[in-house]
């Protein structure tokens, strides 16, 4: 589990000024905390962390020497400025289920000889105790044939008794469709000529 260092921040200093000084602002909240803790983190450290961890990841947050087992709840990214504006962290309690998301990662797509993969979902929402949190679900698409569909209920996450899926179990994660080929183009041309 990765650790990110943070400092408590004074609300007297505006977030905009901290961003100019090379910080990312954030907030830590949780059931067993009185209020929330406004924090600031070094931008470079946050960018490094987000290369491996993302929304839904569990990390250790070191706030002025106090360690918190947290979930990255939300990452606000400013595409215009090309920077991370803020991050929300939820402090975890071992006996409390939390809402989270797991990123869907398709593997073995290079083994598909024909057809076109259509990915309909890129994350699955679920609830779990901190010990059962996952941030990625690997979906092996290597054996798929044209017409095959993988739904949320087919994922390994859905079979885990410690996890409660919140995304509709019937939702399609990925499907393999026939690619539109030259024959289809020829049929369309014949229909157009008949009209």
Summarize the helices and strands and which ones pair or pack:
Elements: E1 3-8, H1 15-20, E2 23-29, E3 37-42, H2 43-49, E4 58-63, E5 66-78, E6 83-91, E7 98-107, E8 116-119, E9 123-128, E10 136-140, E11 149-151, H3 156-159, E12 163-165, E13 172-177, H4 182-194
Parallel strand pairs: 1-4, 2-6, 7-10
Antiparallel strand pairs: 1-3, 2-3, 4-5, 5-6, 7-9, 8-13, 9-12, 11-13
CA distance, first residue to last residue: 64 Å
CATH class of the largest domain reads: Mainly Beta
Radius of gyration: 22 Å
- Helix/strand-derived class? alpha+beta
Q: Compute the number of helices.
A: 4
From the 3D coordinates, which CATH architecture of the largest domain would you assign? Beta Barrel
**Mean of pLDDT:** 88
Strands, count: 13
Protein name: 50S ribosomal protein L25
Pfam family, one: Ribosomal_TL5_C
InterPro entries: Rbsml_bL25/Gln-tRNA_synth_N (IPR020056), Ribosomal_bL25/Gln-tRNA_synth (IPR011035), Ribosomal_bL25_b-dom (IPR020057), Ribosomal_bL25_C (IPR037121), Ribosomal_bL25_long (IPR001021), Ribosomal_L25_dom (IPR029751), Ribosomal_uL5_bac-type (IPR020930)
Domain Large ribosomal subunit protein bL25 beta: 98-178
Keywords:
195 residues; alpha+beta; 2 domains; six-stranded mixed barrel; four-stranded mixed β-sheet; 13 strands; globular; Ribosomal_L25_dom
């Amino acid at each position: 589990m990765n650790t990110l260092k943070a400092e408590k921040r004074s609300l007297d200093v505006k977030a905009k000024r901290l961003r100019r000084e090379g910080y990312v602002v954030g907030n830590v909240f949780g059931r067993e905390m009185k209020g929330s803790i406004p924090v600031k983190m070094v931008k470079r450290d946050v960018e490094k962390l987000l290369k491996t961890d993302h929304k839904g990841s569990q990390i250790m947050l070191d706030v002025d020497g106090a360690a918190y087992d947290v979930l990255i709840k939300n990452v606000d990214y400013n595409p215009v400025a090309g920077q991370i504006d803020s991050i929300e962290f939820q402090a975890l309690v071992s006996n409390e289920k939390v809402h989270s998301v797991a990123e869907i990662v398709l593997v073995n797509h290079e083994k598909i000889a024909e057809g076109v993969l259509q990915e309909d979902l890129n994350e699955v929402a679920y609830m779990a105790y901190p010990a059962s949190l996952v941030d990625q679900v690997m979906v092996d698409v290597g054996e798929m044939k044209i017409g095959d569909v993988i739904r949320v209920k087919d994922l390994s996450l859905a079979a885990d008794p410690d996890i409660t899926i919140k995304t509709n179990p019937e939702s399609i994660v990925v499907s393999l469709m026939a690619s539109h080929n030259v024959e289809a183009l020829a049929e369309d041309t014949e229909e157009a000529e008949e009209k």
